[in-house]
Design goal:
mainly alpha; 5 helices; about 130 residues; globular; about 0% strand
Length: about 130
């Protein structure tokens, strides 16, 4: 493993990330998204769950483009149904856990898009 050349605040942040590994959303309060994201990834360990998130997020973007292009604003109600629908199927039937959305809605939403980007860029395995 290459040497870690980071100093100061970066090292403290890593320590806080390690502190939250293995804890669940019911016992942990996350002060920052950076602390939350390792927990979020742990809750998405199942490949089928991650794939369903990616499919749902892709469809959300496609519907959003369609709504904007057609100005069919009623189609906006589809966005949460598609996004949460695919994600929750992944959690309840494959990951067998409770979505973090229930306790951390904003961090969870941000986590969805960060994970989506990391899957698209190859940082996280699809």
């Amino acid at each position: 493993m290459p040497p870690d050349n980071r100093q100061g605040d970066d090292m403290k942040t890593d320590a806080s990330l390690d502190r939250n590994k293995g804890q669940d959303a019911n016992t942990t309060r996350f002060a920052t998204f950076r602390e939350f994201y390792p927990f979020y990834l742990k809750e998405h360990a199942n490949p089928t769950c991650r794939r369903l998130h990616v499919v749902g997020s892709t469809l959300v973007l496609a519907v959003l483009v369609w709504v904007l292009a057609t100005q069919n604003w009623a189609g906006l109600w589809l966005l949460p149904l598609i996004g949460y629908g695919f994600a929750w199927v992944g959690h309840f039937f494959f990951e067998k856990n409770r979505p973090a959305t229930f306790k951390y809605p904003l961090y969870s939403l941000a986590g969805d898009w960060v994970m989506y980007w990391q899957v698209l860029t190859g940082k996280i395995r699809f």
